[in-house]
Structure formats: C-alpha cells, structure tokens
Amino acid sequence: MRRRDLREPELEVLPRVGAWAAASRRLALRHSIARVVLSGRASRAWSQAELARRAGTTQARVSDVENAVGNLRLDTLERLADALGLTLEVRPSGRAARRVRAIA
Description:
With 104 residues, the protein is mostly helical. The protein has a single domain (18-103), classed as Orthogonal Bundle (434 Repressor (Amino-terminal Domain)), CATH 1.10.260. The protein has five helices and no strands. Helix content is 61%, strand content 0%.
C-alpha cells in the first residue's frame, strides 16, 4: 500500500461559518426546551409516559424532546407546555425581528 493511501481524505466542502452558527443556535434552543420539559416533569414526579398521556403524545416523543433529538413541532411543544401548566411564548429575535418591530 502506498503511503499516500493512508492519509485521511480531505474534506471537499466545508460548512459556512454562518451555517454552523445557525445550527449551534438551534441546538442550544433544543437543549433549553429539553431542560424545561424535564425539570417540569420531574418536579411533578411524572414519568415520561404520564406526561405523554396528559399531552396527548407518545412516551418516545417526550423522550426525544427531553434528549433534544429530532425536529420539534410547535403543536407538540404547545401540548407539552399545557400539560405542564406552562405558557409557550415565541418571540422573534435578530435583525429580521428589529425590522418587524420598526414596521409595527
């Protein structure tokens, strides 16, 4: 085997810094939601199955939310918040939000 075959392949496409930052923000949001749902459930001494029953979803979906896995649907978050007695607020932020506030 030639020495050059032992090298790791070079990456042809590197993600843009902006794309990495956006992905990082989405992951941070998922982890924040996970902490709120987990602490709300734990403070009530509910199992994941009990929260799922009260929210009209599955235990697997509650587990996904608490582990920040998969895509979070707004309707699922609303049902979880209702079951936990929480209010779900969505507020825009960033440059686009400033433009929206300036128009309003």
